């Protein structure tokens, strides 16, 4: 029996994910990754919905938290065109949902260093910050897309359906990791 999209909303809990335990979500609280994540999240306001972004070269996955910041829910995927057009779509979501802050997945290398993709993500954040009045925090997103893809494959989802869902589910996975961290 094929699983529906709704069966995957809760796969974003990184604390229970066998794919994220050792590499993306270090258990050592003094590790550089946990410190980076914690210090970045400090910039977020204490209340209000958060928007999660999974920035790719061709797409941007979006997810949103509930008002209590317990659950991340996938929204949709933007097919990237020009920064201004992409930013306008993000701003529309911020305005429609009264978003208080943004959690942007930061694609670190497996050793925790920043490569070209992380630098590109930081540049995107700087440009977006010039357009919005809410804080933007980074969250280590190593292997988030891989974990979501593996879950969808295990659910026997077709390649076409996976391609349609993976970016917004990865955004939800990233945001849920940040929410779980904020809730502890």
TrEMBL record:
The segment annotated Disordered runs over: 19-40
One GO BP: rRNA 5'-end processing
Note the Pfam families from the entry.
RuvX
InterPro entries named in the record: RNaseH-like_sf, YqgF, YqgF/RNaseH-like_dom, YqgF/RNaseH-like_dom_sf
Q: Does the keyword Repressor apply?
A: no
An example molecular function term from Gene Ontology annotations = nuclease activity
Q: Which PANTHER family match?
A: POLYNUCLEOTIDYL TRANSFERASE, RIBONUCLEASE H-LIKE SUPERFAMILY PROTEIN
This chain belongs to which protein, by name? Pre-16S rRNA nuclease Yqg
